């Protein structure tokens, strides 16, 4: 009886529950921000919506009360094939009078209008560096163009990293007024995931304040080859640390622990995978660096570095450029193509084995033809921006065939191109199905809906100024510049120095004077000498576009190097010598040890930040995020795919005198 009564009571509660729920008042949705410039605003049930298709009715994709996935499916069903194809291009916002989109004036709206209106492209990289209010106004002008189109699909504006020190056109940017932090290597030196999240949260606010929605970062490539020119943008040589910090970066930028939030900036973790394993460190932006060599076990190590970003729900992944020679995945050899064309890397490994559901955005220019100036430029005919191509392994295919092969491999969007025609031809000729196009477009549209761009893509220029001027954010960035430095040597406990006379090389005199020091003209007059330098390098490929801009070759200091000569001059004067070196690559410091008293490494720090550490006003808390080899012979003998494997390194990963 008791059991029967219990069952009866449970059934009564279960049957009563729907009635009780129905009796509860339905909560009214909270109005989200909605703004329109050329389309009408609809009022439905007392709520505001944008009439993006201009039909005077609330179409499902306009209804912010619905899920991003449902809105995306509805919009997809209303699009023409040409409009879908446009979504799969990721172009460049043209600047007025600038190279590769850079400009001190703003966007060329006359050149941009047909890209949006006629070709239906709604994803673009920006390379502008304007004051915050002006940057926001330019972004708003872009969105106004997009709003006026048939379906009003908003533009996603992306950027390379713009809050650091290292700037190479086509790989990294600078931006006016934003907080300035060390390179990712500096965060690796601290090993503090919380600090990474703080940085990424601040940068997210700055991006959204000026109308940027997509970060072409983090670069979680494993720094395994010390001569590689792009080490500075990584989290170093430890795959587990790269994974942990990469996950924190994604969480901070995207605004949530498990994916992209409404006020988030979508991240595109890169470069999938093995980019750091380039022989001689020659970057695969250039024809001579198009092949990376590694074993299957080494590939697994490079994959490990991405796992934190994947677990954090990065909305995007960018494949690497080079052909990966040597490894297999599940017993299958990787195809002899750049990674953007590899079904094994993108579908078998990334999507099926690791479960990635987001957008795969190719790196730039993989569908373009590599002409003679691309392969073998000369002084008389150097490589120009229009000659840039990274179609490695598929040089003999047509552009149409490259689109088809990339899509079959798993690409959703092609970076650095606005050439829609060959993709439309591929569908017409049957090499790509419209159903496959729909899969990619659905992913791209869903991200836009998640970020609220269909409801309000505009930003307030006045608020942008205030957000980017936030003192607390700038203070934390300045503090991080100081703490992320690595004190490698401090003979006889010389630090901290007292204010006095200093002889400088590679340092602004104004910075020393602002720190309370007197600048003298000879080392003999000084209490100590300070030499600032970067890691040594050579220009081995001056006629290649990127070869003329990136560091290559040797890592050791030699006679004739400006910094080496300055150190020798100061040493000869018998005064304490400080070498403050930007470790953009793992410098060889062997012949600096006996000529210096203090070696202070940094990964992006102002002169003021360096002086604060030297004068005891701030403490260096970093540890090396990679080893520093002892000789070029040791560098040449190491395995480019294996991190920290040079013979008898001068300093090991993790070395550093942490100041308390």
UniProtKB/TrEMBL annotation:
**Keywords, sorted A to Z:** Glycosidase, Hydrolase, Signal
What Enzyme Commission number(s) appear in the record?
3.2.1.21
Query: Is Flavoprotein one of the keywords?
Result: no
Compositionally biased tracts (Basic and acidic residues):
644-660
Q: Where is the Glycoside hydrolase family 3 N-terminal domain?
A: 107-446
What SUPFAM superfamilies is this protein classified in? (Trans)glycosidases, Beta-D-glucan exohydrolase, C-terminal domain
UniProt signal peptide: 1-22
Q: Which reaction does it catalyse?
A: Hydrolysis of terminal, non-reducing beta-D-glucosyl residues with release of beta-D-glucose
Q: Where is this region: Disordered?
A: 636-660
Q: Where is the Glycoside hydrolase family 3 C-terminal domain?
A: 520-656
Question: What terms describe the molecular function in GO for this protein?
Answer: beta-glucosidase activity
Asked if the Swiss-Prot or TrEMBL record annotates the protein with the keyword Signal, the reply is: yes
Question: PANTHER family given for it?
Answer: LYSOSOMAL BETA GLUCOSIDASE, PERIPLASMIC BETA-GLUCOSIDASE-RELATED
What family is this? Belongs to the glycosyl hydrolase 3 family.
The protein's name is: beta-glucosidase
């Amino acid at each position: 009886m008791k059991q029967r009564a219990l069952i009866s009571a449970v059934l009564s509660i279960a049957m009563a529950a729907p009635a009780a729920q129905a009796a509860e008042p339905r909560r009214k949705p909270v109005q989200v921000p909605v703004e329109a410039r050329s389309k009408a605003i609809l009022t439905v049930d007392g709520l505001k919506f944008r009439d993006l298709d201009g039909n005077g009715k609330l179409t499902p994709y306009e209804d912010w009360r619905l899920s991003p996935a449902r809105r995306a499916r509805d919009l997809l069903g209303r699009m023409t094939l040409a409009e879908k194809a446009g979504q799969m291009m990721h172009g460049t916002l043209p600047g007025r009078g600038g190279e590769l989109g850079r400009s001190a004036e703003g966007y060329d709206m006359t050149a941009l209008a047909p890209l949006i209106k006629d070709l239906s492209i709604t994803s673009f990289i920006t390379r502008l560096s304007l004051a915050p209010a002006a940057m926001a106004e330019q972004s708003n002008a872009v969105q106004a163009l997009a709003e006026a189109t048939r379906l009003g699909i908003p533009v996603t504006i992306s950027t390379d990293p713009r809050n650091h020190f290292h700037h190479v056109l086509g790989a990294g940017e600078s931006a006016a007024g934003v907080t300035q932090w060390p390179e990712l290597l500096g965060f690796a030196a601290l090993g503090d995931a919380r600090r990474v999240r703080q940085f990424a949260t601040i940068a997210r606010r700055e991006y959204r304040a000026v109308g940027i929605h997509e970060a072409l970062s983090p670069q979680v490539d494993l720094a395994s080859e010390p001569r590689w020119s792009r080490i500075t943008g990584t989290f170093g040589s430890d795959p587990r640390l790269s994974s942990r910090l990469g996950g924190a970066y994604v969480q901070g930028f995207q605004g949530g622990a498990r994916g992209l939030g409404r006020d988030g900036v979508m991240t595109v973790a890169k470069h999938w995978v093995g980019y750091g394993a380039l022989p001689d460190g020659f970057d695969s932006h250039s024809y001579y660096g198009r092949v990376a060599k590694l074993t299957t076990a080494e590939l697994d190590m490079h994959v490990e570095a991405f796992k934190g970003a994947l677990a954090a729900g990065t909305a995007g992944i960018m494949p690497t450029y080079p052909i990966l020679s040597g490894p297999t995945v599940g017993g299958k050899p990787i195809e002899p193509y750049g990674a953007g064309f590899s079904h094994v890397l993108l579908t078998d490994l990334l999507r099926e084995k690791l479960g990635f559901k987001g957008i795969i955005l190719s790196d730039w220019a993989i569908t373009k033809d590599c002409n003679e100036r691309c392969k073998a430029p000369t002084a008389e005919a150097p490589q120009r921006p229009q000659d840039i191509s990274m179609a490695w392994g598929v040089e003999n295919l047509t552009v149409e065939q490259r689109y088809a092969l990339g899509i079959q491999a798993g690409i959703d969007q092609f970076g650095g191109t606005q050439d829609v025609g060959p993709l439309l031809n591929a569908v017409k000729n049957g090499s790509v199905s419209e159903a496959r196009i729909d899969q990619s477009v659905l992913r791209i549209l869903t991200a836009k809906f998640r970020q609220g761009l269909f409801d309000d893509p505009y930003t307030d220029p006045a608020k942008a100024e205030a957000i980017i001027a936030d003192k607390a954010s700038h203070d934390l960035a300045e503090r991080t510049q100081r703490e992320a430095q690595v004190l490698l040597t401090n003979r006889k406990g010389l630090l901290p120095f007292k204010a006095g006379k200093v002889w400088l090389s590679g340092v602004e005199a104004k910075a020393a004077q602002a720190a309370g020091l007197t600048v003298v003209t000879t080392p003999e007059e000084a209490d100590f000498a300070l030499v600032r330098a970067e890691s040594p390098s050579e220009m081995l490929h001056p006629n290649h576009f990127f070869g003329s801009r990136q560091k290559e070759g040797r890592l050791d200091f030699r006679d004739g190097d400006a910094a080496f000569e300055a150190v020798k001059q100061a040493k000869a004067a018998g005064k304490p010598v400080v070498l403050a070196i930007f470790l953009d690559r793992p410098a060889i410091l062997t012949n600096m040890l006996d000529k210096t008293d203090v070696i202070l490494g940094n990964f992006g720090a102002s002169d003021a930040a360096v002086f604060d550490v030297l004068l005891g006003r701030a403490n260096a808390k970093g540890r090396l995020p990679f080893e520093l080899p002892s000789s070029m012979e040791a560098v040449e003998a190491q395995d480019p795919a294996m991190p920290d494997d040079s013979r008898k390194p001068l300093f090991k990963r993790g070395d550093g005198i942490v100041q308390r």
